[in-house]
Amino acid sequence: MSPDLPTELKAALEARLHGLSRTDAAERAARISRTYRDGGGSGAIRSETDALAYALARMPATYAAVTASLNALREVRPDFVPKNLLDVGAGPGTATWAAAEAFSSLRDFDLLDTNNALRALALDLAADGTRLSGINYRHGEARAALADTASADLVVASYMIGEISEAERSELAGLLWAKTRDTLLIVEPGTPAGYARIIALRAQLIAAGAHVAAPCPHNGKCPLFPPDWCHFAQRLPRSRAHKQIKGAELPFEDEKFSYLALTRAPRARHPARVLAQPAATKIEVTAKLCTAHGLVMAKVPHRAKADYARAKRWRWGDAVIEES
Ligand SMILES: C[S@@+](CC[C@H](N)C(=O)[O-])C[C@H]1O[C@@H](n2cnc3c(N)ncnc32)[C@H](O)[C@@H]1O
After folding, report:
1. Which of these, 93, 91, 73, lies nearest to 82 by C-alpha position?
2. pLDDT exceeds 50 at position 324
3. Is the CB of residue 95 below 6 angstroms from any atom belonging to ligand 1?
4. Can you spell out the DSSP letters for 268-281?
5. Which of 163, 185, 191 has most ligand 1 atoms within 8 Å of its beta carbon, as the pocket-test mutant?
6. Nearest alpha-carbon partner for 258 in 165, 193, 177
7. Residue whose CA is at the smallest distance from ligand 1 atom 13
8. How does strand 279-280 pair with strand 284-291?
9. Per-residue DSSP letters for 81-95?
10. Alpha carbon distance 153, 158 (integer Å)
């Protein structure tokens, strides 16, 4: 699945750009992003124009991160055919668009968010989509609203748990898991703080019976220690409007993210995960792998022709080498 926004979504966003001052939108996007950097949340997004500016600046990157996480999930769970989705802290509907692209089996889409401006934009954008015109998007605080929300085969919280206080997070994690019939996907910024939130939730939900589908090949303790942390990067193209809103020159950006996919049933496959971009020389490929037996610096020598050729194609984030 491509990290680029689906054509329908791109067209819907571009259509809403007409009549919008790019300078004003860029200023709003910069103010919102400053708020996030300073530890604030989506409360800075108050109006229709704020919501659109945020979506133009950030939706391509969060979409790319969710897509990369869903690709990893589908690789280890090719048999997963979810019928319904629950997107918590859905914002402009980013994860819903990504999940609809990943799973043609999805029929029902439930979304939930406290932010009315983002909810209105999501409904507006979805009305232009063939699959998403009938989404059900509730306005409400996640922990309160989840109590009377139906469970779903796939539950997603993308770039959301960082906006919940630490004290409330474990209650939210329990509720998200209670609403998960099959798989729960959490995606966070690929910072040490984002990883720390994921790893805390991972321990809590494994203790409650969850199994890790991706990225980890095991349910054991994470073998990484500070200053190291588990994160990945997804390159995505920047459209002209995206570059203007961000005041950027480069035609692409790399979104760093951390993620966790948890399932109710233990999975059959346990491929190792490539944790950084491997180094390939004419002598060998060196790759940092998280395996079912711990962290390994794999060295694949050139003389092992077939293995070397395979290892040269390994990329950061790939699932490689089957383990039992
Ligand atoms: C950074 S945005 C991410 C939006 C979207 N999931 C994405 O990946 O693009 C975080 C979203 O979580 C929502 N949110 C934060 N705290 C929430 C809560 N307690 N209940 C419901 N939604 C919440 C915000 O309103 C915002 O829309």
Report:
1. 73
2. no
3. yes
4. S---EEE-SPPEE-
5. 163
6. 193
7. 89
8. antiparallel
9. --SEEEEET-TTTHH
10. 16
| Dihedral sign computed on CA atoms, order 252, 11, 52, 159 | negative
Can you give the pLDDT at residue 279?
97
> What is the number of residues in the chain?
324
Q: Which two tokens stand for residue 313?
A: 């194609």
Residue nearest to atom 1 of ligand 1 (CA): 159
Residue 41: what pLDDT?
86
Name beta bridge partners: 295: 290
Question: Closest Cα to residue 42, out of 177, 161, 138?
Answer: 161
For 308, the token pair is 């070397």
**Structure-token pair, residue 72:** 């990893």
User: pLDDT tens-digit profile of 280-314?
Assistant: 999 999 999 999 999 999 999 999 999 999 999 99
Distance 158 CA to ligand 1 centre (A): 8
Strand 152-158 with 180-189, pairing: parallel
67 lines ligand 1 (CB under 6 A): no
Where does residue 321 fall: left (phi above 0), alpha (psi -120 to 50 degrees), or beta otherwise? left
Residues of 21-56 as b/e, b for ≥16 C-beta within 10 angstroms?
Answer: eeeebbebbeebbeebeeeeebebbeeebbbbbbbb
Return the best residue to mutate from 5, 42, 87, 158 for the ligand 1 pocket (most ligand atoms within 8 A of CB). 42
User: Which amino acid, one-letter code, is at 86?
Assistant: L
**CA 118 to ligand 1 center in whole angstroms:** 9
